[in-house]
């Protein structure tokens, strides 16, 4: 395609780097300032610059969660629509909200959106999103597997003006702090996000002061055009055709019925279509997602398949995403969406499985496919409430180049798993086990990565209550190109009469734990890539020697040739 915007390559490259640095610095500012380990340690947050009129993504920080790359534009569009009702917008205004049906993802993700003005004219929008530790609702940490509407998940805030012309509205902050179990954490996270936006304004002032608004605007236009051109060039290298795939969620936490996610991937020339017709309808439980989240998920999958492409809305211009009305991928308010992460992971798995039929060299096998959102909460001896909320890792899928990553975080995330020592220092718990899970990886020419085993004991004399929101307890992560599936997700909890498992396999709330009792997660590995019989025997023998694979499993999956590969 012919580019419309003309700007010399050197200036464009410099400005691209400078603009990305603005977003990256905003990320770093919040990570340093946040009180909440989900942001400070796990980096469940994101920042970026967005188009003044459309809200489309211009630049996004590289350290934030990938899912936010696509979805944050919908958050900005929600604010643009809000402003359009009254045509009331001033420099220094800041909007805040967490309504997932307007801005995507779930209610724990608090969004701040601020207009950036230059010479009295709106130049672009700056936005910040961070996963707050707790925003009310029935379950501490807000992952409620029994929620049947949004009101059971968390406090819902539509787009409202937190600041007008630079003056903070304390009334809004008072409402926010009254609707959380952890007001100090919420205040700290809010201050961190405000600080990130302030820094973004300063850095944009410096940049536009140096290069001028017309040049920077031309650079932003050019980057969008180049992203589109790069995407079209990538698509023309792939074969034309149509490929289908289906995967399943265990259940919705209310009814123990599998939920299908189907996709048909079509390529014709320099255009692609992702059609999710046939996907299960909206369900009662919280594995629904809002339409903005579904569209953003398609973007994340595309970014994984074409990793060299920039985080820019131009990438999606040649790609049509069709989401059926009434499906669990386009659930309207007040449908519960708290478990959105599980559904978008399954969407990505289905897209990868479809693309593997067209171009297996461009995809990896399914990763472990669940964040296993586990909340353990209670009251200390002095009456102070505590909430330990964290995600837990698993194995990534085998790749065309090698074995999958052991014990990584979800592929929708650049977040890290908080260190065991940090969690033990902050909360009255002890990790009995934090280890790789043998025999959890999918077999293949390149095996999947290993999942993990976590066993967490409650130390508080008052005991605690646990809540789990996970997946892959019934449908294992799949291999591609002839690779085998990985192990299932297994959750168990300790009671006076021994160990038990949830009736819904991967979801449960209200698990009462006395002092000295524990919960146990055995997370899936990743699927295998390529046929197992093509794996070199010495690689299998090495896995056995390292304890990744038992001798029995090695023989069952790979035959007896591995024994000859022993050193």
What is the gist of this entry?
By secondary structure, this protein is an alpha+beta fold.
Describe this structure in words.
The protein has 567 residues and is an alpha+beta fold. 31% of the residues lie in helices and 22% in strands. It is built from twelve helices and 20 strands. The strands form four sheets. It has a seven-stranded antiparallel sheet with strand order 2-1-5-4-3-6-7. The chain has a five-stranded antiparallel sheet with strand order 14-15-20-17-18, with helices on one face. The chain is globular. The mean pLDDT is 93.
- Which outline best applies? globular
Number of strands: 20
| Global structural class | alpha+beta
How many H/I helices?
12
Describe the sheet with the most strands.
7 strands, antiparallel
Portion in helices: 25-40%
Mean pLDDT: 93
Separation, N- and C-terminal Cα atoms: 56 Å
Instruction: Order the strands across the largest sheet as they lie in space.
Output: 2-1-5-4-3-6-7
Q: Quote the beta fraction.
A: 15-25%
Offer a few descriptive terms.
567 residues, alpha+beta, seven-stranded antiparallel sheet, five-stranded antiparallel sheet, 20 strands
Write the layout of secondary structure elements.
Elements (H helix, E strand, L loop, with lengths): L8 H25 L3 H4 L4 E7 L5 E4 L5 H21 L7 E4 L2 H4 L5 E10 L2 E11 L28 E5 L2 E2 L1 H9 L4 H29 L1 H24 L4 E9 L9 E10 L2 E5 L15 H15 L13 E4 L17 H19 L14 E7 L5 E6 L29 H7 L2 E8 L15 E7 L5 E6 L20 E6 L2 E3 L6 E7 L4 E5 L14 H10 L4 H8 L9
Parallel strand pairs: 10-11
Antiparallel strand pairs: 1-2, 1-5, 3-4, 3-6, 4-5, 6-7, 8-9, 9-10, 12-13, 12-16, 14-15, 15-20, 16-19, 17-18, 17-20
Helix pairs in contact: 1-6, 1-7, 3-8, 5-6, 6-7, 8-9
